[in-house]
Amino acid sequence: MLELKNITKIYHTGGENVEALKGIDLKFRECEFVSILGPSGCGKTTLLNIIGGLDQYTSGDLVINGTSTKKYKDRDWDTYRNHSVGFVFQSYNLIPHQTVLANVELALTLSGVPKGERRKRAKEALEKVGLAKQMRKKPSQLSGGQMQRVAIARAIVNNPDIILADEPTGALDTETSVQVMDILKEIAKDHLVVMVTHNPDIAEKYSTRIVKMLDGKIVSDSMPLTDEEAKDEIAKAQSREEINRKKKKPSMSLGTSFGLSLKNLITKKGRTALTSFAGSIGIIGIALIYAVSQGTTTFIDAVQEETLSSYPLTIEAQNVDISTLLSTFMGKAKSISEHEDDAIYQKAMLYEMMNAMNSLEAQENDLKAFKEYIEKEKANENSKLAAALAGVQYGYDIDLLIYTKNVDDAIIRSDREVMTLELMKRYFNMDMSLCLPCVSSPLWAALHP
């Protein structure tokens, strides 16, 4: 038995609350044909969706076979919709690329019914609605009334307890509407059929009970359930609930999912081809970008390794940061401007260079500790640095008195100090040996230890 207790439904739209249902109380018999009448916007379809589990109520309770749904989870609602409710809408909602028989079988597929049993029950449902000869056709080959009868067959094939019909004759002519209503009336002999309609004539002719609604409330009920009837209905419902609990949860096997997807792809070949082509371009583009990125990274790594092998790293006992000196030269080079011919201008480049050299500070490196670390890593076979340390060389600070001849066949000392002084004298026209601050600067000491 189905029972609604003080059901309310509130929609929150645009910062406003719209109360679609206001305290609905209804009890339904196990087998009857109930028509819900009322103007548009009175909450008929909302009530039908709540009964079918397609929408959730805001407050109140929906009792199904004596069981409250307040603690129902999504999985429980899926089971309820699949095993206990059949839907017939104004729009037929048939899958266009499936045959009539396949459309009816789909509900049983989700229930896990074997293929042979599924085919048998689908044919029986189509025979009940008078479409036994149309089961191999596609929906596009049927009339509107025939498609609505296919939707009815799909709703009853799983033998649900409740059939919910939302304006089933709204898009049909009078003759076809009569055929559909005759089928629903026959189904109502052993099922609960709840139909929403605007047509009072159809409701009066076919329904056993008419419920009228206005502004989200029930204003009349032609045959409400008595207390004695309710007790009998609850007893029947509880025994049937034990059977429903043993039914399988709705699911679809991997093979069935693959088969339906394959049929869909084959039916829509053009769209499938375009989608595959676009997807292929995207995949190829991503692969190309990744390949170029990896190739560039590999090339940069190779260049870095070659550069390090050509220009090895040198670690000395004393380190002098000459960036300040270089910035002084660069600044002066950028500040050169044109001068008039009849004027004398002063450039303090040499003075500033000497001040920069005097301000440099030498840093001492702990080469002893570093050498011990290098030797330890080279001796360790499992060290990741062992291969990189194969080319380590050591040099010692020995002042050798070596002389050579220059281009003028003059004998000169070939160490860095004498050659640096000669260079400064030649290009700056100044004897740097007399520049005591320069000779005693940290940079000079680092260049001439």
TrEMBL record:
CDD domains xref list: ABC_MJ0796_LolCDE_FtsE (cd03255)
Keyword Nucleotide-binding: yes
InterPro entries: AAA+_ATPase, ABC_transporter-like_ATP-bd, ABC_transporter-like_CS, MacB-like_ATP-bd, P-loop_NTPase
Domain of life assignment: Bacteria
Domain ABC transporter: 2-240
Keywords from the UniProt entry: ATP-binding, Nucleotide-binding, Transport
A single MF term (Gene Ontology): transmembrane transporter activity
Pfam families in the cross-refs: ABC_tran
GO cellular component, one term: membrane protein complex
Protein family: Belongs to the ABC transporter superfamily.
Record-given protein name: ABC-type antimicrobial peptide transport system, ATPase component
Species of provenance: Acetivibrio straminisolvens JCM 21531
